[in-house]
Design a protein that fits this description.
two-stranded antiparallel ribbon; 63% helix; 119 residues; 10% strand
Length: 119
């Protein structure tokens, strides 16, 4: 399928699909004249990319883990032996970022409370 149909099927903009391609996440075939052509497998790759992005992974990490994932019912499962450790490290990074955001929110809440107390 051509990029217009692929955009409709995946719900992802053409610009974002090209970004995925630039990041090495998506590798469409090239037809006559160099036009991108996508198959059903590419639809699945985009679904996986979107799932991993929503889990908080960046495109660099996704490029690393994407080849080592397979579908199991309604979730992705790692297939490479070292992938669990990489994913745990990424989860730890997300936990640290969440803690920093929580602390920032508490600091902002203090400033807001002080402002409200002043009237």
């Amino acid at each position: 399928m051509r990029i217009g149909e692929f955009v409709r099927r995946t719900g992802v903009s053409e610009r974002l699909l090209r970004h995925y391609e630039e990041q090495g996440l998506l590798r469409p075939e090239r037809g006559a004249g160099g036009q991108r052509e996508y198959g059903e497998a590419h639809v699945e790759v985009v679904r996986r990319i979107r799932c991993l992005l929503s889990a908080g992974l960046g495109t660099t990490m996704i490029a690393t883990v994407l080849p080592c994932l397979e579908d199991e019912s309604d979730h992705l499962a790692p297939t490479c032996p070292d992938m669990l450790e990489r994913l745990r490290a990424e989860r730890d990074r997300i936990d640290r970022a969440m803690e920093a955001m929580r602390e920032s929110r508490e600091a902002l809440d203090s400033v807001i409370a002080a402002g409200q107390a002043r009237g």
